[in-house]
Q: What sequence folds into this?
């Protein structure tokens, strides 16, 4: 049988990384692409731009806390923000399945406009394609974005002792979609954390010297992003399980479905790597900001772990947290 | 019955324009978007950038003269080129249907790399999503692009008497796809004109002062683009039917299928509007360049026609060429 693309290769974890590296990186290779950050840093001096792209294929398109339109604007803006860039311009390219209700389309586009307005960014170019019934799933949206890198921010070399900070509760987007997908009802429905990280990151500019890396844990969750960071750092990470902020409702849902919140997508959080000596100060700053009052130092880099991510609980037991290997829940964003 | 998106709204002609204006422009409104050119001009001084996006959903993905990968790179590069911009950076976001052969994916990505290499542009950022079988058609590709506008080029006000120039034979991409789709075989198969316009446009920089507008006639064909130009100019256009360059094979196919080459997509041509006094000189320059030796002055702007596009043949009879109203051939690019 011929080798084919499999659904698990879309999970956002290891199989996706392998597909991207073997198929795309190998052929498109250039220094900017191979940086492998959430946005491409363009140019080396003067007015520094960041450029990124993301397609949104989420099912269902409307969920507690947002919809595919809001997700498409914030998702791409967040990829710029974690590269220290202020999102300025977005494109909007839609592939619509014939028969998609105009009312839903209007509602999605209104969400996009509202999200763009909140971030004061402009959607300046677009493309609209329609495919026959049965060749899409309602609507797919691609947004690409251009941002201006603030204060020449750049990811830096990470050292043992540096701290890992989560800006807020993890797994809320994934949990909200899972609950919806599996038809699980609760008194107060789980809300996605779908939102903009930029307002938080722009308040951290004083700390840019001490922030060594920022990533947003979407597909593949915090676990996958931590593995990417360990790989980048060429160091292990010890995660303090009791410090990882997870909402009670998310925990309950995970227990019910046998899922691990570490693998559930966030759509409004960032994982920051901070210089050891500044981590506490940075955390206190985050705790005072709107949208990151639940921030925590969730781990630190260790020499000895050889690029592995370990999670340790208060009883002292530890387990390896690997990158996502298969598909917990496809079509999450 | 609720109002739904219809396939004809993806034709690239009037129904698409209406959908875009009513749904997207109305909500995203900002000066840059409302310019409505093939790329967005960003910023007003200094290093001027252009930004554009396009999704490619073509069926079949491989055709004489190219494939979806080549199309995705040149298509977006062309949208930048007709705004006078040198294409610099591209993104590549794919939505792949589960089960798509890896071999085909590799071949498509190789085409993209080759096309990017030819234009010396870098594909610097990307996204890879996989959807379940039955929720796409093999592969959809979005490319967004950033270019640097050369010599502060800008579209200008068009006057009666200004000339319309086609850089080469029209309808060849559409004809190649139609022949393939309808299973029409010929001794020498129709080749798509899928290619880069930039090498031609970069040779016209001396004439940028006299070039009032450039557009590439893709979905909806030359007819639709001429109508867009008439609308922009607020003038009518007289098209000289005998001057419109159409290959014999394209004509023959159109006769057979009852199609009009004016409505068939091009993927490597541009329509230029040139100041009357410079049009002949510009044409002669084009005829000497590789890739535009078949260029022709195909029409001129007229005060009296009130934004209509008329086509006149050598017998003096004329007919109105309106923008595409429905779907001749969906999924053309």
A:
């Amino acid at each position: 049988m011929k080798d084919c693309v499999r659904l698990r290769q879309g999970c956002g974890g290891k199989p996706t990384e392998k597909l991207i590296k073997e198929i795309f990186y190998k052929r498109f290779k250039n220094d900017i692409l191979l940086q492998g950050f959430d946005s491409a840093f363009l140019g080396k001096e003067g007015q520094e731009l960041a450029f990124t792209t993301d397609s949104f294929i989420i099912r269902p398109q409307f969920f507690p806390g947002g919809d595919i339109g809001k997700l498409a604007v914030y998702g791409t803006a967040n990829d710029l923000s974690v590269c220290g860039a202020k999102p300025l311009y977005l494109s909007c390219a839609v592939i619509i399945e014939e028969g998609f209700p105009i009312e839903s389309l209007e509602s999605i586009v209104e969400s996009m406009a509202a999200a763009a307005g909140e971030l004061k960014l402009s959607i300046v170019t677009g493309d609209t394609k329609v495919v026959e019934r049965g060749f899409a799933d309602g609507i797919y949206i691609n947004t690409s974005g251009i941002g201006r890198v603030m204060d020449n921010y750049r990811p830096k070399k990470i050292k043992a002792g540096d701290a890992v900070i989560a800006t807020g509760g993890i797994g809320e987007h994934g949990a909200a979609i899972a609950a919806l997908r599996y038809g699980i009802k609760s008194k107060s429905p789980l809300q996605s954390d779908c939102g903009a990280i930029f307002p938080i990151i722009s308040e951290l500019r004083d700390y840019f010297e001490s922030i060594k890396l920022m990533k947003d844990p979407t597909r593949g969750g915090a676990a996958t992003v931590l593995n990417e960071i360990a790989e980048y750092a060429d160091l292990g990470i010890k995660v303090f399980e009791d410090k990882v902020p997870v909402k009670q409702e998310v925990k309950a849902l995970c227990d019910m479905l046998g899922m691990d919140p570490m693998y559930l997508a966030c759509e409004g959080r960032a994982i920051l790597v901070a210089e050891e000596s500044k981590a506490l100060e940075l955390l206190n700053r985050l705790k005072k900001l709107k949208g990151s009052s639940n921030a925590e130092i969730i781990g630190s880099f260790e020499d000895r772990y050889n690029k592995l991510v370990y999670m340790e609980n208060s009883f002292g037991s530890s387990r390896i947290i690997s990158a996502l290997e298969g598909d917990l829940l496809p079509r999450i964003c």
Observations:
- The longest helix of chain B spans residues 102-118.
- The CA atoms of residues 72 and 143 of chain B lie 6 Å apart.
